[in-house]
Specification:
Helix content: 10-25%
Structural class: alpha+beta
Strand order of the largest sheet: 1-2-3-4-5-7-6
Radius of gyration: 17 Å
Number of helices: 5
Strand content: 15-25%
Bound molecules: coenzyme A
CATH architecture: 3-Layer(aba) Sandwich
Number of domains: 1
CATH class: Alpha Beta
Distance between the termini: 35 Å
């Protein structure tokens, strides 16, 4: 069975949404089809799927903002988890980001999602010990988000230490930049989930951020 990694095609949409749902990555406040449509307009070549005989078995989105690379929505089909596919997909993202001149990759994982943190640590990612902030600019439920300060609904109090900020420098030493937290505050990121199929690891459920 040969697994092929290639850029996402519009005809993959429903399979990718089903994959994300099977991995617990979809949450009510993030419409995955809207997320896919947005990604089609910004660095679509960094939206990858892995297929086996045309069936989508893994997917993920990456982006480079000119300072840092980001990875979101990484998912491997539950029946294929633990077979090295997540590592392959991340290696491809790192290759593409390095080719763009990206010096460092950041991503966010719920602090309680120890299994996914272990996965990223196995790939060389380390905790940046930063607080991750976010602000919704466009609501996916059809309502108009107001961004002018006086009209923006008061956000919930920041609950610290619920998100781990992991990063890797593909070309050298891991470095934590004071600007990383600022980047996190302006870029909505969704990257945490349910990890369920590794028989050697206890299952755990977490709530995605974003
Ligand atoms: C997280 C996920 C993408 C990992 O993909 P995967 O294909 O299962 O991982 P791989 O088989 O490529 O594992 C790569 C390395 O991570 C390690 N690893 C993976 N899961 C692990 C776990 N639960 N605990 C410890 N190590 C783990 C593996 O041992 C492997 O290391 P090795 O090559 O040195 O043996 C996949 O489990 C998944 O889709 N989970 C649900 C969705 C999710 O949580 N996405 C992350 C959003 S932030």
């Amino acid at each position: 069975m040969e697994t092929v990694i290639r850029p996402f095609r519009p005809t993959d949409t429903e399979a990718v949404v089903a994959l994300w749902e099977s991995c617990g990555l979809v949450r009510p406040w993030n419409d995955p089809r809207r997320d896919i449509a947005r990604k089609a307009t910004v660095q679509p070549e960094l939206f990858l799927v892995a297929t086996d005989r045309e069936a989508v078995v893994a997917a993920g989105m990456a982006g480079f903002d000119g300072h840092r690379g980001w990875v979101n929505y990484l998912a491997v089909s539950p029946d294929r988890q633990g077979s090295g596919l997540g590592r392959r997909l991340m290696a491809e993202f790192e290759r593409l980001l390095t080719d763009l001149g990206c010096p460092k990759v950041n991503l966010q994982v719920r602090a309680s999602n120890e299994q996914v943190i272990a996965f990223y640590e196995a790939l060389g990612y380390a905790d940046d010990h930063t607080v991750s902030l976010g602000k919704r600019l466009i609501a996916d439920d059809g309502t108009e988000a107001r961004t002018d300060a006086g009209l923006t609904p008061r956000p919930e109090p920041i609950r610290r230490r619920t998100v781990r900020h992991l990063s890797v420098d593909p070309g050298g030493q891991d470095t934590a930049s004071p600007t990383d937290a600022a980047n996190a505050s302006t870029i909505p990121v969704v990257c945490s989930a349910v990890s369920r199929s590794r028989s050697t690891m206890p299952a755990s459920t977490t709530v995605p951020i974003g």
